[in-house]
Amino acid sequence: FANFHVTQGPWTGGFWDVPASSPFREEIAWLSATGVTTGYPDGSFQPTTEVTRETMAAFLYRLAGSPATTTTVRFTDVPATHRFAREISWLADQGITTGFTDGKFRPGEAVSRAAMAAFLHRYAGSPSTTAASSTFRDMPAGAPFSQEVGWAAQTGITTGFTDGSFRPGDAISRQAMAAFLYRFDALAG
């Protein structure tokens, strides 16, 4: 992970919709301080909004330090003029995504919790894992992304829910994404 580590810095700003009582305040503050997000123009973070695939690409690209890259049109639904074309192209260049079999990236589609684990696992270089694929009651061995979710649990990126589930098909919220990225970055430290 060393090539992708972002140094954690002090947070000097705030989002009006992230109160001091938010369980993800520290992680959201870190996401802002590192430049992974600037939030929305109205000063909000929108913590419960679903993370889309294009936003995930932007977050990971910025987490990597916004490296120089050549924008190559790789997906039929991401033209060179797309607002996140560079970030999505970089994601594909790094092998973090291959898109879908129909040649699309589906930039506006929500990222599931299982897909988030797969993106982060690939971002980390697809490390081998000894994690049990059945770490969570709803992630049986052989389920799509079960190894990646097991890796995310083994490394402490996710702990799942108190009922023992991971909820792999649920869309990931921006506040949960902040927590996952914060923990992921701590691994590289």
From TrEMBL:
InterPro entries for the chain: Cell_Envelope_Struct_Comp (IPR051465), SLH_dom (IPR001119)
Pfam (any one): SLH
Taxonomy, superkingdom: Bacteria
Residues of the SLH domain: 11-74, 75-131, 132-189
PANTHER family: OUTER MEMBRANE PROTEIN ALPHA-RELATED, S-LAYER PROTEIN _ PEPTIDOGLYCAN ENDO-BETA-N-ACETYLGLUCOSAMINIDASE
Protein name: SLH domain-containing protein
Top-level taxonomy: Bacteria, Bacillati, Actinomycetota, Actinomycetes, Micrococcales
